[in-house]
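Hi, here's the filled form for the chain we discussed.

Project: internal
Contact: R.S.
Residues: 293
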Amino acid sequence: MSVWSTAPGGLPVDSAAVVEDARFTCAGPQHARPRIPEATVVDCGGHTLLPGFFDCHLHFLMDGNADLTGRLLTNRPTVTVFERARRMRETLHAGITTARDLGGIDAGYRDAVAPGLIEGPRLHVALRLMSHTGGHADFSMPSGYDPSALLDPFSELADDPGQVRLATRRLLRDGADVIKVCATGGVNSPSDQPEDGGLTVEEIATVVDETRRHRGRPVAAHAQGTVGIKNALRRGVTSTEHGCLIDDEGIDLMLEKGAFLVPTLSTFQVERDRFTPAPTRRRPGSRRRRRTG
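And the returned structure, exactly as it came back:
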């Protein structure tokens, strides 16, 4: 069934859009729309009609800046499942119709959306983050406590090219649409920092090689530090996630390789506020002195 969606005549252009099989196939002036006898006409006067948005990087595992570990400790596992389903429904109703979940849910959530068992955007899932021991996806705390058991599925640790190839195969077997590798450390890692190296260039190349053998699945690189960003791009990753410290050479590499950047701007804003010293404030009523000489 085709659907006509028309704007009110009071707008500068009395416009119309055609939606067929959940896709916009035509948009423009009302008088130019093709005539489809069996179309259903919907008057959208006073409203704005948009195609669905694509969120390229999210984690339905967590809810904003909430106490994730605390909730996972106190929740029963079934409650956690329903919380994730609620986030998926809210995301869909906010206008996000396709999303890449880059770690933290299994492929069952994606498979439940397709037949309508739960409401949510169409999903591309990474399942687990791949990093080396002590890297961004290793959540072992200095105390020895490892909360990763609460985050399952979240971490896929591998420490040489052979382990990396096997880890890639496990992720593909488990239904991953995209493989996510940690090319650098991260701001919330217990054992590293954003400019620390992640998987080696040889290990990243191994992941890319293995995915090419399986229908060319994309490889997303968690990459915040400058060197790690360029290492990942040189080895053929599909996307750079975050890219906070990318430089001009990294931008040129991205263009040369045909990769894309997912800047995760809202996350960057939160982390910038956490790690950037607050500006010094003048006392009320004080006057800034003009320097002379």
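Let me know if anything looks off before we file it.
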